[in-house]
Design goal:
Blueprint (H helix, E strand, L loop, with lengths): L5 E4 L4 H8 L3 E7 L17 H7 L9 E8 L2 E11 L3 H14 L5 E6 L4 H11 L18 E6 L3 H26 L7 H15 L2 E5 L1 H7 L2 H7 L7 E7 L13 E12 L8 H4 L7 H16 L4 E11 L11 E3 L5 E3 L7 H16 L3 E6 L3 H7 L4 E5 L2 H14 L3 E3 L17 E2 L9 H10 L7 E5 L5 E2 L9 E2 L4 H8 L2
Parallel strand pairs: 1-6, 2-4, 2-5, 5-6, 9-10, 9-13, 12-16, 13-17, 14-15
Antiparallel strand pairs: 3-4, 7-8, 8-10, 11-12, 14-17, 18-19
Helix pairs in contact: 3-4, 4-5, 5-10, 6-10, 8-11, 10-15, 13-15
Length: about 500
């Protein structure tokens, strides 16, 4: 569902902006310390801002808000003193989110924003306003704030590009959330392909969708096997962006292939999950959603690279035609894998897409994104993604982009001593790793590495941060869209 909140830069004073917009609330920043702001609004109060901050034991921490009533024009409005810490990007992102949440139910809010990363503030405010609801719309008190009018220290004209960039990133993240939050009763591989085609038409992308017949004929054995247990067959979605089609001159800087896991529902197949573990499995295509969302934003950000997005979409269900433990799959290009657990299906579909990218697309770099292993969540929790790579420079660039975007990743090793864990007696490799090794996220990454050859490659396991059970700053309950801002920051630094 699109973010309904709008953020725009305005000039003048806080008072004039509030009167012109009819804003019910005005906000001024408080730096860590706290440092009380200088504002004309203080003249209308019977106490100083320092006294107000002391009364509430405020410290100016990001996300902290202290309120009072103040007369602006002919109305009493709410004054919000909001903490911005040191005004670093992470601070402003959290501060913007806190203001947007506090503004719920209001038509307009005016906020002075300190000099800093206004794009990060924009992302926080817009993403905290995101909602996904099927049925009745939220009540008046819960609806997102309509307009956040920003008074940036650098002036409205200078601030416009940063606000636009933050808006593009937030909308991409919201699109990824929408796709992942859609219930699987509606969202099957065909539906996801249809959404990709619609988005491609809106975003100036070329698109090709391979159906079941083509997947069989061309040798995409992993997708065919994983989708074989469902009455709703698999798809391979291919989106293509060329900056020359968007008006750029000269050759593209490089060719990047993004690969996303698109398991539209994961029951575990014949290795059936317990019921509680299935409840969030409509979001098991979060990696694919991230790739679609990133592709949709490339033109708006003027990305100079040529980018291909591959989404390997299948539904993993148990039935008489489902793959079985002990089956051997021939992947695209001929590598075979033994299925020891049908609930380790994500790597099977990713293997096909990675092998196809390597063999047919001639990429300069490949990055895959997937809610792949519970082991990554155990290792890094719910806020960090796991990063694996065969290229140090690529790993460093993605780590920097994740930190800047507020989507941090931590690099884990591709331990060569663990490679024998995925050996098989009857195939080239097995899909879960033999007992005695542990390290489930590492062995999964080693499995994927078999399909990229010597191409620079990175694997983002977002099983932890791809979903959230609660609202926190710009994160909302459900699918988080993790990875969209990271990848956009890497592609368009």
């Amino acid at each position: 569902m699109p973010i309904e909140t709008r953020l725009r830069a305005v000039g003048g004073t806080v008072s004039h902006a509030a009167i012109d917009l009819g804003a019910e609330a005005v906000a001024v920043p408080v730096r860590k310390g706290p440092q009380a702001p200088a504002t004309e609004l203080a003249e209308s109060l019977p106490f100083t801002l320092d006294e107000l901050l002391t009364l509430h034991d405020a410290k100016g921490e990001p996300g902290e808000i202290v309120s009072a009533q103040v007369r602006v024009g002919d109305k009493v409005r709410e004054l919000l003193l909001y903490g911005v810490g040191e005004a670093e990007p992470a601070d402003l992102r959290k501060a913007g989110a806190a203001l947007a949440r506090r503004g719920r139910g209001r038509d307009a809010l005016v906020a002075v924003v300190p000099r800093g990363d206004l794009a990060a503030f924009t992302e926080g405010a817009l993403l905290a306003s995101y909602t996904f609801k099927i049925g009745a719309p939220p009540g008046e008190k819960k609806k997102a704030v309509g307009t956040v009018a920003v008074l940036p220290e650098e002036g409205p004209d200078a601030a416009a590009p940063a606000i636009e960039r933050g808006t593009v990133a937030a909308r991409a993240t919201a699109l990824a959330r929408d796709l992942a939050n859609t219930p699987s009763r509606e969202k099957d591989p065909s539906w996801l392909a249809g959404e990709a085609e619609r988005i491609a038409a809106e975003s100036g992308l070329a698109v090709r969708v391979r159906g079941e017949k083509e997947l069989v004929e061309e040798g995409f054995g992993g997708l065919v096997a994983v989708g074989g247990g469902s009455s709703r067959p698999p798809r391979l979605i291919e989106l293509s962006y060329d900056p020359r089609d968007a008006g750029a001159s000269g050759e593209p800087e490089r060719h990047v292939v993004l690969v996303g896991k698109g398991i539209t529902f994961d029951s575990g197949g014949l290795s059936l999950k317990p019921n509680d573990n299935m409840k969030s499995m409509k979001t098991d295509m979060a990696g694919g959603a991230t790739v679609i969302a990133v592709m949709a934003a490339l033109r708006d950000l003027g990305v100079r690279a040529r980018v291909t997005g591959l989404i390997a979409a299948a539904e993993n269900m148990p039935s008489g035609s489902a793959m079985r433990p002990g089956d051997v799959i021939a992947h695209y290009g001929g590598t075979t894998s033994e299925v020891l657990n049908t609930d380790a299906e994500g790597r099977l579909v990713l293997a096909d897409a990675l092998a196809y990218a390597r063999a047919d697309l001639d990429p300069d770099v490949i990055v895959d994104v997937a809610t792949l292993t519970g082991a990554a969540k155990v290792a890094l929790g719910l806020r960090y993604g796991a990063l694996f790579s065969n290229d140090d420079d690529l790993a460093a660039a993605l780590t920097r982009a994740g930190t800047a975007a507020g989507e941090p990743v931590w690099r884990l090793p591709l331990v060569e001593d663990y490679r024998e864990a995925i050996d098989s007696d009857v195939a080239d490799i097995n899909n879960t790793g033999r007992g005695g090794y542990g390290a489930g996220s590492i062995t999964a990454a080693l499995f994927l590495r078999e399909f990229v050859g010597d191409r620079p490659w990175a694997h983002l396991d977002i099983a932890g941060p791809g979903r959230s059970t609660s609202d926190d700053a710009e994160i909302t309950r459900g699918a988080t869209g993790f990875g969209a801002r990271l990848l956009l920051g890497w592609l368009a630094p």
